[in-house]
């Protein structure tokens, strides 16, 4: 018997990379398979939640029972998130949002020449920090994928973005693979989870955040 830890809860999540257009055929992106986010969406559905998955371009099927809103750029992702968040209990930012976008996308394909070409980049909004700063924010969970100093950076992000919970993982352990090893950070401290297949890690993350939610 699986207790429905998120019964009656509404969860909004971001997933995948964002794609920031340079011109109609080119863009800047991050590498993100979306596997962790989609696994987490599935675990939330299985825990009884209503799930809205705001997803950048990934090659994954929509988890059964989740509602996917497909977006491309960080600005589109932000719009979709702000539209979905009112009335939600939990927001989980898993997406690898591009930190910068080309200041202006060219209307037509840029033709090549022998000359150097510079692209001016402008910072993208931090979607998670913005949701966490809303007047009545949902319970906000962030992800921190780091290649070193995991504790320092993950806890630093948690404090900087004012999040009750952050999931930290060392990128050499996680990205793209089927297993993941993560450490959960919350007000009480750090909680390392054993290395496990992503679906199992997702269920542990759900159990941890469900225990921290205010009663409904
Ligand atoms: O600061 P950093 O990008 O490493 O923080 C990672 C966390 O913040 C992730 O949960 C990610 O989804 C979220 N984020 C966001 N919008 C951004 C950048 C990161 O929601 N522009």
TrEMBL record:
Positions of CTP binding: 99, 109, 125-128, 143, 157, 161
UniProt catalytic activity: N-[(R)-4-phosphopantothenoyl]-L-cysteine + H(+) = (R)-4'-phosphopantetheine + CO2; (R)-4'-phosphopantothenate + L-cysteine + CTP = N-[(R)-4-phosphopantothenoyl]-L-cysteine + CMP + diphosphate + H(+)
Keyword Lyase assigned: yes
GO BP, sorted A to Z: coenzyme A biosynthetic process; pantothenate catabolic process
Cofactors required: FMN; Mg(2+)
Every DNA/pantothenate metabolism flavoprotein C-terminal domain range: 6-211
Domain of life: Bacteria
The EC number(s) this enzyme carries: 4.1.1.36, 6.3.2.5
Gene Ontology molecular function terms on file: FMN binding; metal ion binding; phosphopantothenate--cysteine ligase activity; phosphopantothenoylcysteine decarboxylase activity
Pathways involved: Cofactor biosynthesis; coenzyme A biosynthesis; CoA from (R)-pantothenate: step 3/5; Cofactor biosynthesis; coenzyme A biosynthesis; CoA from (R)-pantothenate: step 2/5
Keyword annotations: Decarboxylase, Flavoprotein, FMN, Ligase, Lyase, Magnesium, Metal-binding, Multifunctional enzyme
Cofactor binding note from Swiss-Prot or TrEMBL: Binds 1 FMN per subunit.
Region span, Phosphopantothenate--cysteine ligase: 11-216
GO cellular component: phosphopantothenoylcysteine decarboxylase complex
Family per record: In the N-terminal section; belongs to the HFCD (homo-oligomeric flavin containing Cys decarboxylase) superfamily. In the C-terminal section; belongs to the PPC synthetase family.
Its biological purpose: Catalyzes two sequential steps in the biosynthesis of coenzyme A. In the first step cysteine is conjugated to 4'-phosphopantothenate to form 4-phosphopantothenoylcysteine. In the second step the latter compound is decarboxylated to form 4'-phosphopantotheine. Catalyzes two steps in the biosynthesis of coenzyme A. In the first step cysteine is conjugated to 4'-phosphopantothenate to form 4-phosphopantothenoylcysteine, in the latter compound is decarboxylated to form 4'-phosphopantotheine.
Protein name, as recorded: Coenzyme A biosynthesis bifunctional protein CoaBC
Origin species: Zoogloea ramigera
Gene: coaBC
């Amino acid at each position: 018997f699986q207790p429905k830890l998120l019964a009656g809860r509404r969860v909004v999540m971001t997933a995948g990379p964002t794609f920031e257009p340079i011109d109609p055929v080119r863009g800047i992106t991050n590498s993100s398979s979306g596997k962790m986010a989609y696994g987490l969406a599935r675990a939330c559905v299985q825990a009884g939640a209503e799930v809205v998955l705001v997803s950048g371009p990934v090659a994954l099927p929509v988890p059964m029972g989740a509602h996917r809103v497909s977006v491309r750029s960080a600005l589109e992702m932000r719009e979709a998130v702000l539209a979905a968040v009112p009335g939600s209990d939990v927001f989980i930012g898993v997406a690898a949002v591009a930190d910068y976008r080309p200041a202006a996308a060219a209307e037509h394909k840029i033709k090549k020449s022998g000359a150097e070409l510079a692209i001016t980049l402008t910072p993208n909004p931090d979607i998670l920090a913005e949701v966490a700063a809303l007047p009545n924010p949902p319970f906000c969970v962030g992800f921190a994928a780091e290649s070193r100093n995991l504790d320092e950076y993950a806890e630093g992000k948690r404090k900087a973005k004012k999040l009750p919970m952050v999931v930290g993982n060392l990128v050499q352990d996680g990205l793209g693979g089927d297993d993941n090893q993560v450490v959960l950070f919350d007000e009480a401290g750090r909680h390392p989870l054993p290395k496990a297949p992503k679906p199992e890690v997702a269920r542990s993350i759900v159990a941890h955040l469900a225990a921290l939610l205010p009663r409904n």
